[in-house]
Amino acid sequence: MPATIRDIRNRTGLSLATISKYLNGGNVLPKNKELIEEAIAELHYEVNEIARGLVTNQTKIVGVMVYDIESFFAGSMLHYIGHELRKQGYGTLICDSYNNEEVEEQNLKFLLGKKVDGILILPVSLSGSFMEQARSADVPVVLIDRAVKDMEFDFVGIDNHMAAFRAVNLLIENHHRRIAVIASDVEYSGIERLAGYLHAMEAAGLEILPCYKRLGRHSFELGYEQMKELLALSERPTAVFLGNYETTLGAIMAVNEAGLSWPEDLSIVGFDDLIVSRVVRPKIWMVVQPMEAICTKAVELLMNRIRHKGEEPAVKINYGAIIREGDSIRSLAE
Asked: Residue ranges per domain, the chain?
C-alpha cells in the first residue's frame, strides 16, 4: 500500500501542517526539512500531484502549442523547451495545431480546460485574438519564434528582418544582382524575413523581379517546387535566399535533381542549421538562430509570470542570429 502523509508524520513526529507546507513548496526549518526528506526516501512516498494542485491551485504542467509538430525546427524547439521545463520541475502537455488557425484556437481551449499553469506557443495565426481566452483566465502566455501583429504578448525570438537583411547583403557584397527569395508571406517569421530581403535589395538599388519572389507557407514543398521553377527561368537568378529550414531542404533537392551544383551554378544562403551542414557538401552558408537560448529565456519568462502574476507590460526579447560560414556563395567579381 502506498505511503501517505500520515506515515511521514508517524516517522518524523512532525505535524501534518508542517509536512503539508513542505510538500507544497513552503519553507520549513532546516532540521524539519531533513527529517521529511529522509522519511520520503525511506517510505518511497510519492506526491499526489492532483491533490497538491487542488491545494496550491497549480498543476505543475505547462501547455506547449506548436504550429506543426512535423517541422524539424519546431521539433528541436520542443526538445529544448521540455528540457528546461523539466529543470523547473514542470511537465508538458503538447498540442499540434497542424498549421490550422481553428485547431490552434481549439488547442488553447483544451489546455485551459486542463488547468495548465502557463502556455508556450509557436503560433500559426498572425492575430492574437484567439489568446484572449487565456488572458481572461489569467493564464500567462509566452510566444516563441513568431509574434502576432495586433496584440501585445510576451515574445522571445530573433530579429528576423535584420537576419534576412544581413544574409541578402552577403550575396550583394559578392556582386550578385539577380537574387531570388523563397519564403513565407503568411507566417510572422517569414513575412519579417521577406521584408529583410526587400530592404536589402532596395537599399542596394537592385531591381526585384516579380518572378524572383517565390512565396507561400514555409515547407519542404515550397522550397522544392519554387526552386524548380526558378531554375527553369530563361534568366535564372545567380543566387537564392531561402526562408527557413524545410524550405532550404526542398530547394537543395531541386538543385540536386536538376544536376546543378553550388556555388558554381547557383549561390545559396539557407536558414536554420539543424542537420544540413553535417550531410550536405559543399557546406551551405546558414542563418543560425540561438534556439536553446530562446527556449531557455521563454521558459524563464513564463516561470516569472506564473510566480508573479500582475499587470506588467508584455516583454519582447529579440536575440541576434549569426550567419555561419559555408562554401555555397561564389563571388561574381572574378
From this structure: 5-56, 61-158+291-318, 160-289
Smallest Cα–Cα separation from 298: which of 271, 272, 316? 316
Decide: 168 and 323 in contact? Cβ < 8 Å: no
pLDDT tens for 150-193 read 888 999 999 999 999 999 999 999 999 999 999 999 999 999 99
Neighbour tally for 99: CB within 10 Å? 18
Length of the chain: 334
> What gap in Å lies between CA 70 and CA 73, rounded to an integer?
9
CA 189 → CA 156, 194, 271, 327, distances in Å?
A: 12, 9, 11, 26
Same fold, 5-56 and 61-158+291-318: no
Q: Which three cell numbers stand for residue 25?
A: 513548496
Note whether 141 and 131 are within 8 A (CB): yes
Provide the 8-state DSSP code for 212: G
